[in-house]
C-alpha cells in the first residue's frame, strides 16, 4: 500500500549486570547478535547476569521418604 508509513518495531529490554565491571545496562531480552548487543557499554565484556530472577515453578508438596515410620517406645 502506498502512502502508509512503516511502523517501527519494538524490542523488549531487560536490565543486566556486567560480569566484568558490575555496570548495570539494558540489553534485548530476546538475545541478539553481536551487532545488536555488543556487550557492556563501559568495558565491552559480553558476560552478564539478569537483575531479575526468572519465575520459579511452584514447588510440589510431597514426601521424599514415602510412608511415615512408627516408632515403638524402648522398654
Written overview of the protein:
The structure is a single chain. 0% of the residues lie in helices and 19% in strands. With 75 residues, it is an all-beta fold. The chain has a domain at 13-50. A 3-stranded antiparallel beta sheet has the order 2-1-3, with no helix packed on it. Strand 1 (13-18) and strand 2 form a beta hairpin.
Q: Give the CA-based shape.
A: elongated
**What average pLDDT do the residues reach?**
76
Helix content: under 10%
Number of helices in the DSSP assignment? 0
Characterize the largest beta sheet: strand count, sense, and whether it forms a barrel.
3 strands, antiparallel
Low-confidence region ranges: none
* Main β-sheet, spatial strand arrangement: 2-1-3
SS-derived structural category: mainly beta
Reading the helices and strands in chain order gives EEE
Concise synopsis of the structure shown:
The chain has no helices and 3 strands. It has 75 residues and is an all-beta fold.
Keywords:
3 strands, 0% helix, 3-stranded antiparallel sheet, elongated, 19% strand, single chain, mainly beta, 75 residues
Amino acid at each position: 500500500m502506498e502512502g502508509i508509513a512503516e511502523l517501527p518495531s519494538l524490542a523488549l529490554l531487560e536490565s543486566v549486570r556486567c560480569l566484568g565491571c558490575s555496570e548495570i545496562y539494558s540489553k534485548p531480552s530476546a538475545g541478539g547478535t553481536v551487532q545488536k548487543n555488543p556487550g557492556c557499554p563501559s568495558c565491552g565484556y559480553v558476560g552478564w547476569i539478569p537483575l531479575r530472577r526468572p519465575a520459579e515453578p511452584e514447588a510440589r508438596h510431597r514426601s521424599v521418604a514415602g510412608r511415615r515410620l512408627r516408632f515403638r517406645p524402648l522398654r
